[in-house]
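SAMPLE LOG
Freezer: B-3
Tube label: C17
Construct: single chain, 242 aa
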Amino acid sequence: MSQSEQLPETIPRHVAIIMDGNGRWAQRRGLPRIEGHRRGVKSVRAMVEAGADLGLEQLTLYCLSSENWKRPEAELRRLMNLLEQFLVEERSTIMREGLRFATIGRREGLSDGVLKEIDKTVQMSSQNTGMRLCLALNYGSRSEIADAATAIARKVQSGELSLDEIDESTVADNLYTAGMPDPDLLIRTAGELRISNYLLWQISYAELWVTEKFWPEFRRSDLIEAFHAFASRDRRYGGLKG
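STRUCTURE (predicted):
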């Protein structure tokens, strides 16, 4: 690591990123939107390599929201093809770096090819012990919470769980992210100041960091800048400064 990449003493354990601005990056250059998504894949690769190298425990990337199905069918089809290609091409890196691969979100709507590659990568990397790479696909936090409520209700109905036993841990254990640490840092690119239905429960105490850069422009140096901003924050979790 070069001197210019000096890390702060404290870095986040889990970073979640809203990868925004692919389409706008392309349009400003007179390119088709899909080219922005292709260039965005390069940023994904850069962040996966950087996160593993810098010591993150988990990196969660918002790849496809449940609202993205409103986009033109041709764009969605190309996105599915790009995702399938990414999963195939990055599998060797995931295994070489010892990364654990996971996804969160509903499987309905994802192409058969994407589902096949997801399952294969999850199975192959299940014994790895390095950074967890989690892709949020067909993900929406409100749907996640609704699904958790349904799962809890079924357990109560079956007698597996009583009403008096339901607490915050019960909810967390029934979310898509069960067993994962909550994000410490949420990064959003392209200057937007919205959460966009992303990990609403999990980011309750996360630090937020927004950059004007579009996702295809985001690189390792930007991630390190976000780490320094994170380290400068006073995280009190609702309490008073000691």
